[in-house]
Amino acid sequence: MCIIQLVKRLLIKGKWVFIIIKKIFSDNVPLVYSLLHLKNESNDFLVAASEEEKGSAYAYDLNNDFMKQEVWSDIGGTMTMVQIPGTLDFLATQKFYPGFNASACELVKLTFEKNSWTTKKMINFPYLHRFDLVEGENETLFIGTTITERKKSTDDWTSPGKIYVGEYNHEMEQLTNLHSLEIDLIKNHGYCAFKEKGYSLITSEDGVYQLFYPTKTSDWVLEKVYDSPVSDIAAIDTDQDNEFNYYLVINEFHGEKISILNQDFKEVTQIRGTYPFAHSIWGGIFNGKPCFIFGNREGKQDYYTISVTEDSGVIDAEFGLIDSQVGSTNTIVFQKDSKQYLVSANREIDQLAVYEEI
């Protein structure tokens, strides 16, 4: 296995600190797009799926040196995969192909049996781009967002997308009480869940919406928190007070500008430079440090860490290069043996990649 060592630099208390990042694993997955860390008490897998029309999905055994097995083949268009709570089964979208060719998009269930998965179609779900499962009071809640409701061509955005909510019944393998909320979302793209806080953020051309999950005393509640167009969003807590104080947003749909918002969703700085087809985004604690992970799919197509710095009230961002010319579409972080790892779907070079900091 070829190991590529890369260096990022991070400004800490006025000093430059050099940290080595290395790629510890990679595999060829044509037009890789969607990622999932799938784990229970006995098993630990990394799943990667393609968006190409004749694509495949693969599971890599993290307990067995990334041993590869095929989950499905000859069908792609997978935008999202989500583990079913308490199981090693998961839900996935299929047939959401490049160019927003997604009128035939389906939601399918993958059932884990004898160290492999079987696929069962659940429902036709045209243009379902992001979805999630959330543990509610007495049920598993379903959230799904469509990028549109219908299209005549790639550039046709006359039909806004919707937010769908309901419940998922694992025994019946069905979505129940599925309905759309009374709101239209133009060019909906981003979704970011904060399940421990009881809400998710959903982005669109109209801005950012905060979707609060039902409780014993309230139904679904949707509030608009930011008015400008946003493609995707992530959050970090830099002062360890258990509240997010910075958000990273991609401005405009698949835009080339990125900005930092404060805890009140007010823009505090627009990051210098352009990042064409900005797409891959993650926020959280990586090996003890709050940071964002970011990548774009055109131009230089680089893959970065972004740390937020504040000096005398001036907010800035310090970039650290992870990898070059890879065109990351999505990023996740997983933990194994008390260490965290970055995973990137390097779509533009047909590569699944895993990185560690040493």
What does this structure look like?
The chain has strands at about 5-10, 15-30, 30-40, 45-50, 55-60, 65-70, 80-85, 90-95, 105-115, 115-125, 130-135, 140-145, 165-170, 175-180, 190-195, 200-205, 205-210, 220-225, 230-235, 245-250, 255-260, 265-270, 280-285, 290-295, 305-310, 315-325, 330-335, 340-345, 350-355. The chain has about 350 residues and is mainly beta. It has a domain at about 1-25 and about 230-358. The model is unreliable at about 1-5 and about 10-15 (pLDDT under 50).
Write the layout of secondary structure elements.
Layout (H helix, E strand, L loop, with lengths): L3 E9 L2 E14 L3 E8 L4 E7 L6 E5 L5 E6 L8 E3 L6 E5 L11 E8 L2 E9 L3 E8 L4 E7 L16 E7 L4 E7 L10 E4 L4 E6 L2 E6 L8 E6 L3 E7 L9 E6 L5 E6 L4 E4 L7 E9 L2 E8 L6 E9 L2 E10 L4 E9 L2 E8 L4 E7 L1
Overall pLDDT, averaged? Answer: 93
Total DSSP E strands: 29
Helix and strand string, N-terminal first? EEEEEEEEEEEEEEEEEEEEEEEEEEEEE
- Number of helices, where a helix is a run of at least 4 consecutive DSSP H or I residues: 0
The helix fraction, in percent, is under 10%
Radius of gyration: 20 Å
Q: By helix and strand content, what is the structural category?
A: mainly beta
